[in-house]
Amino acid sequence: MSRARKAVIPAAGLGTRFLPATKATPKEMLPIVDKPAIQYVVEEAAASGLLDILMVTGRNKRSLEDHFDRNHELVSTLLSKGDDQRLASVTASEDLATVHYVRQGAPLGLGHAVLCAADHVGGEPFAVLLGDDLIDPRDPLLPTLLDVQERLGGSVVALMRVPDADIGKYGSAAVDRDSDPDTPRVTDLVEKPAPGQAPSNLAVIGRYVLSPELFDVLRTTPPGRGGEIQLTDALRQQARGEAPGGPVHGVVFAGRRYDTGDRGEYLQAVVRLACEREDLGVDFRDWLHKFVAEGV
Questions:
Q1: 100-105: long-range contacts at Cβ-Cβ below 8 A with a sequence spacing of 24 or more?
Q2: Element (H, E) at 265
Q3: How would DSSP label each residue in 86-124?
Q4: Which residue ranges does the record assign to the Nucleotidyl transferase domain (predicted)?
Q5: Exposed site from 9, 18, 141, 143, fewest CB < 10 Å?
Q6: By C-alpha distance, which of 46, 60, 148 is closest to 97?
């Protein structure tokens, strides 16, 4: 099998959970300390060798393109001031990868957003990284998915064990218990199962490496939960042997992950990453200890 070389990042969502902040600012541009959440995702793709990135956007997302484009005026100003530190932070996002853009014309679901990438991807396996999932760079996940897909073919999804009470927020995977527990064969998938209906507590999180045949599956997948075309529904057909491009394997992830689409977890990500910054961490941790001790 050829190794995936391209990444797709769906970024067309409205960000309603963060209103009013996202009324005029894309949720992907909300900062984690001083860097937009979307930059962490692009950095992850680039660090995994995926330097050809397609971002699927929508209305009011122009600032995403601006962020990864060169700002000549700002660069010139920082150069004239000799501000090398800020200059490096600005140019870092410009030099990560070659980023392309396509618009999802209507909010028809994640499956439809991925389908918008078909012409760009062509007939190769490809990675999908959801912008709301931030994987801690110290716990790399994407390289393992790429390796497994190259070795076993088909499609590969990232899985994470979650409390039973939370599985209804995710797609839930049934797996072959006789297969490798670290890279199990997925036999079925259920999108946001009702209480008591989940096949396991293995949740599908926002990292995938998919076979190109999935585009044909998505073209014939009817709207599912929420009236949207669900990526999980198309992968389910591959997992059950009902569509080409399978099998589907999982990679069970036990590292650090932040759901930056959830307000509480977004705040946790900001605090955790700020605490670990060399330039901010010491003073911020001292303040945080005092704040917690005061019981405010």
A1: 100/52, 100/53, 100/54, 100/55, 101/54, 101/55, 101/56, 101/57, 101/64, 101/65, 102/54, 102/55, 102/56, 102/57, 103/12, 103/56, 103/57, 103/58, 103/59, 104/10, 104/12, 104/56, 104/57, 104/58
A2: helix 263-275
A3: HHHHHHHHHSS-EEEEEE-SS---HHHHHHTTHHHH-SS
A4: 6-241
A5: 143
A6: 46
Tell whether pTM > 0.70: yes
pLDDT at 139: 93
* Structural domains for the chain: 6-159+204-261 (3.90.550.10), 263-296 (no CATH)
Q: How far, in Å, CA of 273 to CA of 179, rounded?
A: 36
CA distance 128 to 125: 10
Q: CA separation (Å) from 5 to 13, 45, 84, 105? A: 25, 10, 32, 26
pLDDT (tens digit per residue) in 21-44: 999 899 999 999 999 999 999 999
Task: Tell me the angle at which helices 281-293 and 263-275 cross, rounded to the nearest 10 degrees.
Answer: 120
Question: What count of residues does the chain have?
Answer: 296
The DSSP 8-state label assigned to residue 138 in this structure reads T
Say how many Å lie between the first and final Cα of the chain, rounded. Answer: 56
Q: Which tokens sit at 148?
A: 């497994």
pLDDT > 90: percent of the chain:
71
State pLDDT tens for residues 170-205.
989 999 988 888 899 999 999 888 888 899 999 999
pLDDT at 102 over 80: yes
